Each structure stands twice: as C-alpha cells, then as structure tokens.
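Possible regression after last week's pipeline update?

I re-ran a chain I had predicted before the update to compare outputs. Posting the input and the new output here so someone can diff against the archived version. Not blocking, just want to make sure nothing changed silently.
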Amino acid sequence: MSHNDGLPQTEGFPPILCLTGIDGCGKSTHIRRLGKHLQDRYGILVPQLHVWEISQNPRFKTHPFISDQTAVHKYLGLLHGGPRALFMFHGLLESLELTRMANPKLILANGYWYKYAFTEALHNTGIDWLLAIASCFPPPKLTVMLDLPPESAWKRKPSVTPYECGFQTPGESTFVAFQSRLRNMFLRQAGREGWRIVSADRSENDVSNEIVQLVENEVNPDGRSAL
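New output (post-update):
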C-alpha cells in the first residue's frame, strides 16, 4: 500500500458483517464466537476489525502515540468532539486498510464507525458532518445491533473509561446516563438502515445462536450464492 493512495475507496472491499451497540453489550464476545463458528463450519478464517487493530500491526504496535492505551484515552479527553472523531476514524480506517490487505473473504466489524460517530454526536458535534466523514467507510452487508439496557451492561463491565461515561467521572450513574442516550441513537439508526436487532439480555448461547442464524440466512458465508 502506498502512502499516496488518495481518498479511501469503498469499492472492492470484502463483505463486512457488523456487530454494534452500546459499551458492554457483548460485541467482542459475539464477534469471537461468530468467527469461531465460521472457521469451524466453513474453514473461513475471518479477521476481526476493531478501531485499535492498528495497534497490533508490527508497523504501529511500538509507536508511542498508538501503543500506550492509557495515554491515548487521556489524549482523547483533551480533544474537542470533531478532532476526536477524526482521531478515532483514522484508527478505524487504517485498521480496515490493514485488514483488507490480507484479502479476506469476510470481515467482522466490532462496533464499526457507528459507535464513534454517535458518541461524538452526543458531545454536540454535528451529526451531518460526522455522517459525511463516515461515508468513507464501506457499508456493511449485514449490521446486527446487540440491544442491552445500560443497567445490565454496567453489571457486565469490570471497569469503564471516561470515554464510555461521556467524559464524566467513571461510575454507574455516569455510565448508565451516557449509554442510555447512546442506545437511543443506535435504535434510531437501526430503524433508518433496517438493522437486525438482537436482544443481548439473554444467555450467550441464545444470543450467539440468533446471530449465527441471521448470518446463515442473509450472508451465505459458504459462498454457494453471491454475497
């Protein structure tokens, strides 16, 4: 990949399967479970796209601006909403480019751009501007929202960051308040884009089985029909 590739291209990407939702809803858990299912059943090794996938790449993993997650979170807290969104988007877009270079058949996206755009919209960054910037990301083939009440998400989280609490002092009240607003934004977007909504307030197996069924029905990961 050249450093002079120009504007990002949305064409030519493999299909993206996106699991998104508020913090603590189980995105990472169910991305892993879905990836294991696809590998076990179809022999497909599907990469997982995360905003900080960039930090695992040998080219970036020792860079002090990326490798120190504590420092990154402190830096995020200093930024205004627009610059912070661009910082998050740059990490996600570079992670996407690095993932694409391996020529995968599918990509599993954890949260994707929705999480960061909606978070910044709640910090009074214009949603139209955020959506315009996010248009550089390829649209998913399938988006599943894992829907969970923030009170339940709080109980699942061993710790929370200021970013997850609207840059207020981390705690139950600030987490639940901010994530409740974020959940409403996800639900509105789900209605606009026709996402599949899966209740995550159940056992992992029940949630995982429903996600797998959606993927089997709508994506045909074995390649027998066009994706």
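Follow-up from reviewer: compared with the archived run. Residues 223-227 have pLDDT under 50 and may be disordered. Marking as no regression found.
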